[in-house]
Design goal:
Layout lengths: L6 H31 L14 H12 L9 H25 L9 H30 L13 H17 L3 H26 L6 H35 L9 H11 L9 H29 L4
Helix pairs in contact: 1-2, 1-3, 1-9, 3-4, 4-5, 4-6, 6-7, 7-9
Protein name: Congested-like trachea protein
Membrane topology: Multi-pass membrane protein
Family: Belongs to the mitochondrial carrier (TC 2.A.29) family.
């Protein structure tokens, strides 16, 4: 990333990168949420989904390919500001840490700047994630649907429990996004630094952006996955299921399924992580270059 770009350019370019992420990665996100939230089979019953491929196949058979894009309106509406704020927070974090304009940040300082960005996004991310997950777990093309779409879901949640219901899972979202964002941005900067020499060609820079962006996405989810599983279960559970919030989700999950359940849905996440985040950083770098050209003083 350009060290000379302002936080404003990071904000605008991050928004464009976020749209690229959702368009390329939402189908696997839907499969991830369905695997994370599927009910445990009762004695004599078969498991709802045997794995990633089985979930993909059943979703397409029952709902068509459009079923893979269920709930996309929520992240697509919120993703531009979410990623914009995330990249803005990272740019601002780097500015705050630097004591001199040309200072090269250490890996721990890049992690801190990235973690700082994770705090910024929760106000938009938490309600968007809540609505997205509830829409994604609605099964079947002909089955009764509780929510008709993003706006209807938000309206019903507000009617059931007010603004608190819409922001259910905010603590879990923070616990996921702060360390995961730190790892995300640090990994990207580190791999770009390793892959791109001073005299690198534009083609090599593009390849490095794709590789670094994809690896950053994988690193992000390796750190954030356990909190994401807890968040998905908390946000999709009926009111009153977990009176003590995330603590109850964790306790029940450990008792019934064990520690490995914290990485339920990891396969579609990792399949999605590389291309989606490669697309994000390619979009981001493209937008930064475009803004440097059309508005060099921004």
């Amino acid at each position: 990333m350009s060290e000379k770009s302002s936080p404003v350019k990071y904000f605008l370019s991050g928004g464009f990168g976020g749209v690229c992420t959702v368009l390329s990665g939402h189908p696997m996100d839907t499969i991830k949420v369905r695997l994370q939230t599927m009910p445990l089979p009762k004695p004599g019953e078969t498991v709802l989904y045997k794995g990633t491929w089985d979930c993909f196949k059943k979703t397409v058979q029952l709902e068509g390919f459009r079923g893979l894009y269920k709930g996309m309106s929520a992240p697509l509406t919120g993703v531009a500001p979410i990623f914009a704020i995330s990249f803005f927070g990272f740019g601002l974090g780097k500015k705050l840490i630097k004591s001199e304009e040309d200072q090269v940040l250490t890996k721990s300082e890049l992690f801190a700047a990235g973690a700082f960005s994770g705090v910024f996004t929760t106000s938009i991310m938490a309600p968007g994630e809540r609505i997205k997950c509830l829409l994604q777990i609605q099964q079947g093309a002909n089955a009764p649907q509780k929510y008709k779409g993003m706006v209807d879901c938000a309206r019903q949640l507000y009617a059931e429990g007010g603004i608190r219901s819409i922001y259910k899972g905010s603590v879990a979202t923070i616990l996921r996004d702060v360390p995961a964002s730190g790892m995300y941005f640090m990994t990207y900067e580190w791999i770009k630094e390793v892959l791109v020499p001073e005299d690198a060609s534009n083609k090599l820079k593009m390849v490095a952006t794709i590789v670094a962006g994809g690896c950053a996405g994988i690193a992000n989810w390796l750190v954030g996955m356990p909190a994401d599983v807890l968040k998905s279960r908390l946000q999709t559970a009926p009111e009153g299921t977990y009176p003590n919030g995330m603590r109850d989700v964790f306790k029940q999950l450990m008792e019934r399924e064990g520690p490995m359940a914290l990485y339920k849905g990891v396969t579609p996440v990792m399949i999605r992580a590389f291309p989606a985040n490669a697309a994000c950083f390619v979009g981001f770098e493209f937008a930064v270059k475009f803004l440097d050209w059309v508005a060099p003083n921004l």
